[in-house]
């Protein structure tokens, strides 16, 4: 959540965690990792345009995520 612009930010992993009903972040992260590799192997170009940027993690640290 950005107070100044009043906008929410979600990572791809956060969305996958909810959509696939994963019990934890690690499960969603692994799901995205495998899916991203499969899409790249198929020649899907949308995955290559997904740049990582830093979001605040549950532990309060800023970490790179898709």
Notes on the protein architecture:
With 66 residues, the protein is of the alpha+beta class. The protein is built from 2 helices and 2 strands; from the N terminus they run H-H-E-E. It has a two-stranded antiparallel ribbon with strand order 1-2. Helix 1 (12-19) packs across helix 2. The radius of gyration is 13 Å and the shape is globular.
Task: Give short descriptive properties of this protein.
single chain; 66 residues; alpha+beta; two-stranded antiparallel ribbon
User: Strand content of the residues, in percent?
Assistant: 5-15%
Return Rg in Å.
13 Å
Helix and strand run: HHEE
Kindly name the structural category.
alpha+beta
**What do the pLDDT scores average to?**
84
Low-confidence stretches: none
Annotation field: number of helices: 2
What strand order characterises the main sheet? 1-2
Shape: globular
Q: End-to-end span in angstroms?
A: 17 Å
| DSSP summary, beta strand count | 2
What's the structural blueprint in terms of helices and strands?
Elements: H1 12-19, H2 25-41, E1 53-56, E2 62-65
Antiparallel strand pairs: 1-2
Helix pairs in contact: 1-2
In short:
The chain has two helices and two strands, in the order H-H-E-E. By secondary structure, it is α+β, with helices and mostly antiparallel strands. The two termini are 17 Å apart.
